[in-house]
Amino acid sequence: MPKSKLYNLNSQTVASATREWLLKRGVTITQIAELVIFLQKDYFPELTLEECELNVEAVLTKREVQNAVLTGIQLDILAEEGKLLPPLQEMIENDEGLYGCDEILALSIVNVYGSIGFTNFGYVDKLKPGILKQLNDKESSSCHTFLDDIVGAIAASASSRLAHRNQAERENRIEPPLD
Amino acid sequence: MPKSKLYNLNSQTVASATREWLLKRGVTITQIAELVIFLQKDYFPELTLEECELNVEAVLTKREVQNAVLTGIQLDILAEEGKLLPPLQEMIENDEGLYGCDEILALSIVNVYGSIGFTNFGYVDKLKPGILKQLNDKESSSCHTFLDDIVGAIAASASSRLAHRNQAERENRIEPPLD
Amino acid sequence: MPKSKLYNLNSQTVASATREWLLKRGVTITQIAELVIFLQKDYFPELTLEECELNVEAVLTKREVQNAVLTGIQLDILAEEGKLLPPLQEMIENDEGLYGCDEILALSIVNVYGSIGFTNFGYVDKLKPGILKQLNDKESSSCHTFLDDIVGAIAASASSRLAHRNQAERENRIEPPLD
Amino acid sequence: MPKSKLYNLNSQTVASATREWLLKRGVTITQIAELVIFLQKDYFPELTLEECELNVEAVLTKREVQNAVLTGIQLDILAEEGKLLPPLQEMIENDEGLYGCDEILALSIVNVYGSIGFTNFGYVDKLKPGILKQLNDKESSSCHTFLDDIVGAIAASASSRLAHRNQAERENRIEPPLD
To answer: Which SUPFAM superfamilies match (chains A, B, C, D) (predicted)?
Structure first.
């Protein structure tokens, strides 16, 4: 279509919208951080919620992650309002088992922190702890077909980031870098 | 949301919608087959358009492919109608360079026929031959941010399928299987 | 390198090698089928081990799957024999947490049956039921850094295939196709 | 296998090995940077080789990238020495068209900087400019089945990184951030 001559992406707008949309759809940073605790508590017993929140925040600064969050939530909202065309409307509204575009967007989030996050994503996506259980409440009037996968993926990515950071820290303890 | 008790996915409906939506958005099987010819003519000089069409048709029977086609076209249509929320509306409308969810859906199509299709996808997506050039016409009033990647991915997948089939055929010629 | 003029891929050789290598490394079709039962029993209580075995067999006929199996097992064997160069030798030998090429090869298997398999892959990879527990025995003299992810991925793919087949069957029951 | 009690990953060792192995296999940072120039010159005419080199260096600091580089080069070396088991030996030695594990490792590199890099990867992988042409010389006694895809993927990733950086810079010019 004829493109606006004045189009200039403003990354700050994209970043803010990501945070706002998550909140409006009922997901807080703390709730995602609790999923990180759930995934990592056996490996890092001393892990704090605050540290997890910082890692979730870092994941959310990535453009690739923001794109997936905004696109997924948009499709959920449109499905909720019945504004998608059939049969896509029915597939997303019913979280159809053979519809996998939600997992695909989720995987694009996990990929940013590498393949070590796949396992954690699959695990929370199956068990649906914490906020994921709420998002999956089939009696609710909301549609979170995309959002629950996306939230699980953000938690898995934050766990991967944490694993990388912990390794870096451990190495510094063993052999402190020269000045 | 409260799920319709009577929801039953009808795969035939999904398959038909995929074909119809492609046509309505101006893409024929023949045009996608021409991309396959473009990609494969150096390797299989005797390749016919009809054979390519059959391979494109086969790719389009896969549910994973249908899901990506319907989801991508739906987002294109909504962007065209200005019905997405900002800043997603602007990003898709302008085919924003840092927005990559179109490539992600495309990759989910390529993946079904394996990694040997990545190269072909990237190649047509960069060169934009045939129908891809039309879909990319920035002066048009249509938005094909998702569709052009999706069509390239279908052509790349059909090329992969063709490579697998040709190998099978070649082997039969060399050593015909025992009865 | 100068290529053998007589090189002709024989797909049957690749397929047979895949089956043999899995067996030699201690993994049977039945053990993978048991993972499929583990993953699907809640959804299809009447599922038989035989049906799962057939689905595992079908997954193993795919070239993309065979390539990943052979490549992964080869790296495991070389690590076991201490024939890899440092630091790769140490990373694979110790199933290093930040080394993710095993998950990457596994994902290439899952992808062939689409994104609905990601969740199942992550779930078994985390829980390590059945044969996966044996493969992960850190006291053993074997190295299965790649194989355990690969076996989990085959089980997840077979589960995806099963879900697609069951849907097809269900639809036929509801509305039998016209002759 | 019984794990060395003293195993401690040293990330610096992994990073150094990555740089050394690339050099030993005949690939310099400058040659990869030239691929970035090839990919980006139309969009950023003022782009310098030095700037591209810095972006390539940054890509090479990522663990996920290092893992793929080391694993791919290791397989190339073993194929060159004839130390892989048949039929994997023949497939890698002959850069078999239906063998796609090289593209899979390459994609894991591209993914780290997001899906916008897929197109660039496919494009250079098809055209084989600069160093990629040398690596693909079928008359040479070396085997670079994995390395050529990996080098193309590093160049595509560096291009993605550059696109993100340029956007950030452009935004600062338009609306300088508040103190």
So the answer is: YutG-like
Cβ distance A151 to A129 under 8 Å?
A: no
Q: Do A83 and B83 touch (CB under 8 A)?
A: yes
Residue given tokens 């934050």 in the structure block: A158
- Closest CB to C9: pick one of D96, D139, D140: D96
Q: Is the ipTM of this complex over 0.85?
A: yes
Q: Indicate the residue type of D104.
A: I
Minimal Cβ distance to C118: which of A97, A98, A122? A122
Domain membership of residue D73 (yes or no) is yes
Asked whether the beta carbons of residue A9 and residue B98 sit closer than 8 angstroms, the reply is: yes
Please give, rounded to a whole number of angstroms, the shortest distance from the CA of A140 to a CA of chain D: 34
Q: Is B142 left (phi over 0), alpha (psi -120 to 50) or beta?
A: beta
Please give the residue range of the domain that contains residue D158: 14-172
Chain D residues close to B122, C-beta within 8 Å: 118-123, 125-126
Least CB-CB distance to D11: which of A112, A115, A171? Answer: A171
pLDDT tens-digit map of D40-54: 999 899 999 999 999
Question: Which DSSP symbol is given to C142?
Answer: -
- B4 phi and psi angles, rounded to 5 deg: -60, 125
Number of domains in chain A: 1
Q: Tens digit of pLDDT for each residue in D20-33?
A: 999 999 999 999 99
Taking the C-alpha atoms of residue C52 and residue B166, their distance in angstroms, rounded to an integer, is 30
Q: What is the CATH number of the domain that holds B104?
A: 1.10.3760.10
Residues of A in contact with C121 (CB under 8 A): 118-119, 122
B178 by Cβ neighbours in 10 Å (0-12 / 13-18 / 19+) ranks as exposed
- Our CA angle for A146, A149, A150, nearest 5°, is 80
The number of helix segments (H) and strand segments (E) in chain A equals: 9, 0
Query: Quick check: D163 and B123 CB within 8 A?
Result: no
Name chain A contacts of D64, Cβ cutoff 8 Å.
Answer: 114-115
- Alpha helix (H) residue ranges in C88-144: 88-93, 101-111, 118-127, 131-135
Shortest alpha-carbon distance between residue B162 and chain D (Å): 11
pLDDT (tens digit per residue) in C90-106: 999 999 999 999 999 99
- Number of continuous H segments (helices) and E segments (strands) in chain B: 9, 0
Whether the Cβ atoms of residue D120 and residue D43 lie closer than 8 Å to each other: no
**Distance from the D155 Cα atom to the nearest Cα atom in chain A, whole angstroms:** 17
Name all chains with 3 or more CB-CB pairs below 8 Å to chain D.
A, B, C
Task: Please report whether residue A60 resides in a domain.
Answer: yes
Q: Which residues of B touch C (CB under 8 A)?
A: 8-12, 62-64, 108, 111-112, 114-115, 164, 167-168, 170-171, 174-175
Other C-beta atoms lying within 10 Å of the C-beta of residue A169: 9
pLDDT tens, A65-111?
999 999 999 999 999 999 999 999 999 999 999 999 999 999 999 99
Residue A5 lies in a domain: no
- Taking only the tens place, the pLDDT of each residue in A27-63 is 999 999 999 999 999 989 999 999 999 999 999 999 9
Quick check: B56 and B158 in contact, CB under 8 A?
A: yes
For chain B, the 3-state helix, strand and coil shares in percent, each to the nearest 5, are 65, 0, 35
Q: Which of C101, C119, C167 sits opposite A125 (nearest CB)?
A: C119
C-alpha span between C107 and C105 (Å, rounded): 5
